[in-house]
Design brief:
Layout: H1 6-33, H2 42-64, H3 75-93, H4 96-109, H5 113-125, H6 128-149
Helix pairs in contact: 1-2, 1-5, 1-6, 2-3, 3-6, 4-5
């Protein structure tokens, strides 16, 4: 990893959070807008609710990252919001229980549900790389803050 300055690390974080926001928003759109008409299944409703909750966590982090605003005071809250979104992603979108519930519902009910489920799974998978880049960016910010706070040695 190439050392960054804190402003460069903050810019990288803002860029990665925006990229994550776009990916998660695509997932929300797929879940909500492409959902088969007249579908009223608990597994689908619960998945939809979890996706929107995850989007809310990403939105919280994004709202805190204002251009030109100092990063240090808000980074703990940004990191916590992104950690929450990341946990929700792996537990509620990609975890065995969530995937098995959707796949089971699509097998039982058929219709447009299998195609929707496939589109949802593909969209969820596209969020993985933005989540990883965002975690790397948060770590870079913490490293720069810690490096900047270390006393300088005189030669």
């Amino acid at each position: 990893m190439i050392p960054l300055t804190l402003p460069a690390a903050a810019s990288q974080l803002a860029t990665s959070v925006d990229e994550l926001w776009r990916s998660v928003s695509e997932l929300v759109l797929t879940v909500e807008e492409d959902r088969p008409e007249g579908l009223d299944l608990a597994a689908v409703d619960e998945f939809s609710e979890r996706v929107i909750e995850m989007q809310g966590s990403v939105a919280s982090a994004r709202d805190l990252l204002r251009p030109g605003a100092p990063l240090v005071p808000v980074l703990p809250e940004v990191a916590a919001s992104l950690d929450d979104a990341h946990r929700r992603y792996w537990r509620d979108m990609r975890g065995y229980a969530a995937v098995a519930a959707l796949r089971g519902a699509s097998r039982r009910h058929g219709g447009g549900l299998p195609a929707w489920r496939g589109a949802v799974e593909a969209s969820a998978e596209r969020c993985e790389a933005p989540f990883a880049r965002t975690a790397e960016a948060v770590n870079a910010c913490w490293q720069e803050i810690c490096h900047a706070s270390m006393p300088r040695r005189s030669s």
